[in-house]
Automatic annotation (TrEMBL):
Organism: Desulfitobacterium metallireducens DSM 15288
Protein's recorded name: Fe-S oxidoreductase
Keywords on record: Iron, Iron-sulfur, Metal-binding, S-adenosyl-L-methionine
Domain B12-binding: 1-134
CDD domains xrefs: Radical_SAM (cd01335), radical_SAM_B12_BD (cd02068)
Superkingdom in the source lineage: Bacteria
Stretches assigned to the Radical SAM core domain: 174-413
Amino acid sequence: MRILLACLNSKYVHTNLALRYLRDTVCPEFPETEIREFTINERVEKIAGEIYEAKAEVVGFSCYIWNLTETLAVIRRLRPVCPDTCFILGGPEVSYDAGEFLKENPEVDGVVYGEGEVTFIELLRTWRDKLNLEQVLGLAWRKRTSEGIKIRVNPPRPLLPLSENTIPYQEEEDFKGRLVYVETTRGCPFNCQYCLSSTIPGVRYIDPETFRMILKRLLNYGARTIKFVDRTFNVNKKHAFQILNIVREEAENYPPDEGIRVHCEIAGELLDEEWGNYLKEYPAGLVQFEVGVQSTYRPTLQIIERTQHFDHWSGYIREIQRLGTIPLHLDLIAGLPEEDWEHFRLSFNDVYEVQPDMLQLGFLKVLKGSGLREKSQEYGLVFSPDPPYTILQTRTLSHEELLKLHRLEEVLDRYYNSGKFREILREAVLLFPTPFDFYHEMAEYWHDQGWFRQSWSGKALFNKLWEFLEASLIKAEEGVYSLKEKLRERLRYDYFYWERPASVPEFLQIPEGERIEDYLSYKAQIQGDERWETQIPPKKQMDRRQWARATAVEYFSKEKWVLFFYQKGLTEVYTMTSLEHDS
């Protein structure tokens, strides 16, 4: 039996963990099993053509809110020319009310609902041995009867310990440049009403040494960015420390410049002093944390059953921030019940004050089977009827306001989350009552100018920000000229830090009358100073031309003369103070 397991990922760099579990479970008995990964951005015709040419008897698709529409389009294109192929779907997006899903999609032969490793291989065995499909737990399927085709939904499959699952990634693959997923737990301790994890009780754990085996394989296959799909990685402190210890131990077998990093989603309210002490000794850059704040508005948190005290546990986040070794992403969800514009503004400002490395602004997805879906009318939740079921308006937040927040999200990603504008943003937000107001006003300015309709280069973003700031200076209390030059200088610093400039745009240049005497000769003298060899050892291996291409010098009133050293996509900053100290 030839089996093809497929998924349409959201991006090329992503990989699908579920397919690897299924492949490595069924391959010993069904060796003609392979996986194919596509993206939702590829043409349906191309994907369908490649699947058709595989000539598989069974095609299984892994389905999520971001790919179900595209997956069904592929199946509908294949069905007329593959009448004997069995199309089986699985994954969270088809697991809820699988029988109704089959009624709505006659091109699909069956759905594996819930955890699929055991169900899928039992389905294949049943087909191979021509047995009764009614014995396969966790399967929804079409049964031919004398009265026609009937949809049957078999009883669910009980959850099994993770130790009974096949270990994934047994087949060698090239994961260089890819984002690879692993899990060390299944389940979640919380009961968040917007999430499907709340419908599955309990948390199950993988044996740490089994995880070590998986990690060894991934690193050997070239994976360097590894994301844990654990819903709450730090639910069990002992387990989490064991896993992170293994990551550290295995990473030590590779040079530091390999850039190995694991990404974990954690609950901020589970952090404590022991976590803080543990992370103080953890290698820089090896782990990054994503923390779901979602909201800081208490009534909303009570409705979604995620009661937490951000004002308390944000202190631990600040401690981690001060370490400077662990990137932190904090998440907010717009469109939650009862959180209106003003209360979302407060939530945004609460999180922004912590200054995470990334502030991820997402929008509520009213998922099938979630608690909020069941009570959507009670809370006035209006959402898209198609995946990913994005919120359109609520009883307290209008559609127009949500559109404004979508624009704010885009500006936030371009500027704050890009990490390229840190100096200017520290100053620019002070022109407005709060950080939220700054990003909102800038997003509306972009909207009024029609800039969202076009793509812009990184350099163009500097120009757009400057134009907005110039338009905003009339609201400033300080002298407009002095403030303008202060902002221009901070933006110029970011411009130099971003990349070595071949030239500096006119709007960022130091005005002629403000330049110090012998400006150009000082720049050349500082850049060519031989003492930099002590501060920057790579200079010893560079000739004059290479050094000139790897550095830039500029004057800033705050730091005085600054040398920027660019190497391997990173920028190091040195001031004249460090050079004079060396002498």
